[in-house]
What does this fold into?
Amino acid sequence: MRFFFWLLTLPLLAAISAFAVTNREAVSLELWPLPFVVTVPAFLVILAAVAVGLAIGALATWLSAGIQRREMRRRGRRIAALESEVQTLRRRIAEGDGVAAATGEARALVVQRDRTPA
It folds into this structure.
């Protein structure tokens, strides 16, 4: 796995380095409406724009996945509640505390599950 990381990272770093070396010309940026003019190398402007675009894309992806994360948390809580219920029923059956009562509760859970939306 580490080999593949370096296999992808080293050529990317080489390409970025070559890009930076070939684009060292000074570029003047006027930050309107501020009265400032900043002179920076062209590669800094381009790489900064790429970095900002990547950050915005990552944020948009993270926000759009929020619905799925919320649903997974809801399902996890439901699974935990059902596992707890199973353990309770198994303990009651093992104790011999009325098998009929335990199976009656299980039937009630099945009926309740059939009525609730998934």
Remarks:
- The longest strand covers residues 26-30.
- The mean pLDDT is 86.
- The beta strands are 26-30, 37-41.
- Residues 21-64 form one domain.
